[in-house]
Amino acid sequence: MDGLRERLKRFGADRDWGKFHKPKDLAVSVSIEAAELLELFQWLPDDGPIDEDLKANIANEAADVLMYLVLLCDKSGIDLIAAANAKIDRNEERFPIETSRGVAKPRKGI
Amino acid sequence: MDGLRERLKRFGADRDWGKFHKPKDLAVSVSIEAAELLELFQWLPDDGPIDEDLKANIANEAADVLMYLVLLCDKSGIDLIAAANAKIDRNEERFPIETSRGVAKPRKGI
Amino acid sequence: MDGLRERLKRFGADRDWGKFHKPKDLAVSVSIEAAELLELFQWLPDDGPIDEDLKANIANEAADVLMYLVLLCDKSGIDLIAAANAKIDRNEERFPIETSRGVAKPRKGI
Amino acid sequence: MDGLRERLKRFGADRDWGKFHKPKDLAVSVSIEAAELLELFQWLPDDGPIDEDLKANIANEAADVLMYLVLLCDKSGIDLIAAANAKIDRNEERFPIETSRGVAKPRKGI
């Protein structure tokens, strides 16, 4: 992840595009790319197979979401992996195994 | 990233929630969380500061986006970091430094 | 629709909130509200029933999407209903009944 | 709006595409089209002008959002215009003019 972040920053710096990367615009871009990822599943059944074409497209769009997310976190001084681990820590407290298992997944439980 | 993925899978397995994690629903969830991230910037100016409160909220929502993205890639047999590196490889070819530098950022250039 | 638009404009003007309604921020708001609408279906099966609670929630979130859409179109000098009719005109040309019927729905066909 | 809804239903029925229009997939489609609308503003400044090209593109994408929204409401037994008016009724109560005017727009105030 550290290597990816440094590579992305150098990519933008080399092209003088870093100036476009304001946090709000990066958040806009995460949403746009997330919708392109979702579009791959538009009209498909819930439980359809992931064939090689779909897999390649998911990889491509998921990469775009991740890249903007990494740039946004970098601009905001956030360690993304640490943030995710901290969120799982909180979720482990909010949803103890004993009372969560076998219960319908709550809307907000990862 | 590997550690995060394994932790997320164990979290779901422990609560028997993995059965909810169909690829389409995970893609839906990435979009929903991306919008919650974007909501943090709603009505804010383009170039506003990131104070400590906003930073904590960004970390929290960016974590949610990442977690669903990791689960989707895991379900789809995709190595997310490798996919992002492959995308940067392609972008380096599409947008050579010599012809891209100092030029307006294209819509599709990360 | 005309009555709705005028009511929305007056609502904003009465509270001096119209100044927040820049086109880009209204487009951001349409996306955020669309995701709240989508969230109502998160983890639900494709073909689940619409009970009274879900129906009330859909009405509530669909209203938010429409309101920002109407404000965005008003700011941009667009007649939303006319735009939708013009789009159907184009779709009728792109997807003639004779060649479209009984064929898998194309990704881009409404 | 009634004419638009009937035209959309006939368009789908003529092509036998109505069977694709499950509520969840229509909500997914509203989100996807909302992101395409947002993409028109990606990297643009907050307060940029709406030129004729941008206006035509906004009209086109706003039409897509509206069309899926109308179909979703139709499938769910919801009168979209009435839902929006009911929402404004509630917002008028939540945000009285006297206490709202001149105050920063709240996140959730249309």
Automatic annotation (TrEMBL), chains A, B, C, D:
<protein>
    <submittedName>
        <fullName>Nucleotide pyrophosphohydrolase</fullName>
    </submittedName>
</protein>
<dbReference type="InterPro" id="IPR025984">
    <property type="entry name" value="DCTPP"/>
</dbReference>
<dbReference type="InterPro" id="IPR052555">
    <property type="entry name" value="dCTP_Pyrophosphatase"/>
</dbReference>
<dbReference type="Pfam" id="PF12643">
    <property type="entry name" value="MazG-like"/>
</dbReference>
